[in-house]
Amino acid sequence: MALMFSRLARNFIKNGYFPTDDMTLERIFSALDIAAGRVRIFDPCCGEGVALAEAKHHLAECGAAVTALGVEFDPERAWHAKGLLDTVAHADVNDVFVTARSLGLLFLNPPYGAVVSDKAGTGDDAKRERLEKIFYRKTVPWLQFGGVMVLIIPHYVLDAEFAAMIARHFERVTIHMAPEQQFKQCVIMGVKRRADSPDLAIAKALEAAGQGELPPVLPEGWCGEPYLVPAMTAEDAFAFTSMRIDGAQLEAEVRRLAAHTLWPQFGAMYGRITLPARRPLRDLSKWHLALALAAGQISGVVRSGSRTLLIKGDTFKEKSRAVDQEFKADGSIVETIRMTDTFVPVIRGLDFTPGSGFGQVVTIR
User: I need a surface site. Which of 57, 131, 176, 335 has the fewest CB within 10 A?
Assistant: First the structure.
């Protein structure tokens, strides 16, 4: 099987990042097939997006409509992946939320090594958490039951704890060495099941590989039962969200969703009207005046004859009190008090007329 995007991956081999090699990808894809027509696949460290784009292409050729999602921390690789996959978040995977049990395929080739290297020798590196385990714990809950995991890690990472985790969550687990052995990688594939006690045979085989009893190399053509990527779940309630978003991604999202927002009308809503002011067709009534004052439209410098005022209009509410008395036939009196809200327009100004009461406060009601 010829890969579609392999040439693109070589452009990003730098700064300690090496994408999954072509031969390993081809042999992995020979073991994958589809169980339904609509599938959702995910890579939490998608790099430049080539590996998952190849997986999408392969599953599409099997007859599926594929939605490919990825996360990448490096900005250059993330923006390249955005051009190959359906949705990519330039983010730390710990800042990403994905609906639980919503992914049909988890393609996981995580960073290798401890969380922080102790080059100064101030602690015990053996006790530091491995990145491979951190990414596994973070992302496996997003894979649906019956979903397929492809895990690519150095074989020596498979200690008793890691082997037990995989054996607890997955069935039909197979382990093979990758054809390319620059990083001593093994390829583990399995089908997610409901968490249970670890399958001891699986755990033993994985732990043995970690201790140096290497499994066979991944075959060129898959002869066993294929791993079927199941139909996507939670189509209506599915969420793939980055908790933090930078300015470039926010701008891209606003542009993408512009037709569904008010941004296209921003200029019309908030732009300044440049037409010259015109006199109203008739004198303003008290009602018009109250509305203009309430809207803050009466303000600024006003000149009337020889006077110059800096004014600011407002409207406040006051209550008017009225008392009604009713005399009953028995001689008693019923008194009714009515309180009515009245909106009162007020204009206050500062007299800026030179030579006459400069600064005096003027109130117009």
Answer: 335
Residues forming beta bridges with residue 349, ordered by sequence position? 311, 362
- Indicate whether 11 pLDDT > 60: no
Please return the burial class of 73, using the count of CB atoms within 10 Å of its CB with bins 0-12, 13-18 and 19+: middle
Name the E strands within 155-239.
170-177, 185-192, 227-229
CA distance 144 to 231: 10
Q: What is the pTM of this model?
A: 0.68
Helix, strand, coil distribution of the chain in percent, nearest 5: 30, 35, 40
Locate CATH 3.40.50.150 in the chain: 6-114+126-260
Amino acid at 93: V
Cα 193 to Cα 25, 77, 153, 286, distances in angstroms: 25, 33, 21, 75
Query: How far apart, in whole angstroms, are the C-alpha atoms of residue 190 and residue 349?
Result: 79
Q: List the single range of 246-250, 271-275, 298-302 with lowest mean pLDDT.
A: 271-275
**Do 234 and 100 touch, CB atoms closer than 8 A?**
no
First to last CA, the chain: 86
124 sits in which H/E element:
none
Token output for 126: 């053996």
CB 199 within 8 A of CB 247: no
* Residue 10: per-residue pLDDT: 45
- Classified by CATH at the fold level, domain 6-114+126-260 comes out as Rossmann fold (3.40.50)
Q: What is the pLDDT of residues 209-240, one digit of tens each?
A: 999 999 999 999 899 999 999 998 877 789 99
With a CB cutoff of 8 Å and minimum separation 6, the contacts of 165 are 133, 136, 137
Closest C-alpha to 44, from 3, 85, 2 = 85
Residues 251, 82: contact at Cβ < 8 Å?
no
Element housing 24 (H / E) = helix 22-29
Give me Rg for the CA atoms of the chain.
36
